[in-house]
Amino acid sequence: MRKLLIGLLLIAAACTTRTTTVTPAPTSAGTTGPRAALDAFLSAIRAKDLQALGAVWGDKNGAIRDTKRISREEVEQRELVLMCYFSHDSFKVLSDAPAVGGERVMAVTLTRGTISRTTNFYLASGGDRWYVRSADMEPVRDLCKKQ
């Protein structure tokens, strides 16, 4: 009887199904909304991923890396500056509001170590995707300094 009970428990355990839903972090391919674009931009900054950053940094004409308005070398140099200024350990979106020309402006607090600074990010729709067009660098200037 004991063996039968153990056998039934094993069979019941084997027949049990579990469903796990995994939500991936936003990527350049999934930036369909302004918040997803901001998340992907800041994730690329944190990961120091030039390719991912270039895919979500842009304007109504598309990703900056694809528009050919500036050279690849200059894009990479600018990305390195962005990575320095917007370097963070964590971030918090404080507000999301409409802006001129159908854009969005998001107030975001970036925290690096014990320093927290709030700045604005400006997001533009480029067809079926959103891009981080620009951000105010002055409020986060000291995040670029070594700690």
Structural write-up:
- This protein is an alpha+beta fold.
- The chain has one domain: Nuclear Transport Factor 2, Chain: A (Roll), CATH 3.10.450.
- It is 36% helix and 28% strand.
- It has helices spanning 2-15, 34-47, 50-56, 64-67, 72-85; strands at 58-59, 62-63, 90-98, 104-112, 115-126, 129-135.
- The strands form two sheets. A four-stranded antiparallel β-sheet has the order 3-4-5-6.
- A hairpin with a 2-residue loop joins strand 5 (115-126) and strand 6.
- Helix 2 runs antiparallel to helix 3 (50-56).
- It is globular.
- The N and C termini lie far apart (68 Å).
- The relative contact order is 0.15.
- The model is unreliable at 4-30 (pLDDT under 50).
- Text of the CATH class: Alpha Beta
Total strand count, please?
6
Q: Specify the overall morphology.
A: globular
Arithmetic mean pLDDT: 83
User: Between the first and last Cα atoms, what is the distance in angstroms?
Assistant: 68 Å
Task: Give the strand line-up of the largest sheet.
Answer: 3-4-5-6
Q: What count of domains describes the coordinates?
A: 1
The rounded Rg comes to 22 Å
The helical percent reads: 25-40%
Largest sheet: 4 strands, antiparallel
Give the oligomeric state: single chain
H/E element string?
Answer: HHHEEHHEEEE
By CATH, the architecture is named Roll
Q: So how many helices?
A: 5
Structural class: alpha+beta
Low-confidence stretches: 4-30
Strand content: 25-35%
* The CATH topology: Nuclear Transport Factor 2, Chain: A
In short:
Helix content is about 35%, strand content about 30%. With about 150 residues, it is an alpha+beta fold. The strands form two sheets. The chain has a four-stranded antiparallel β-sheet.
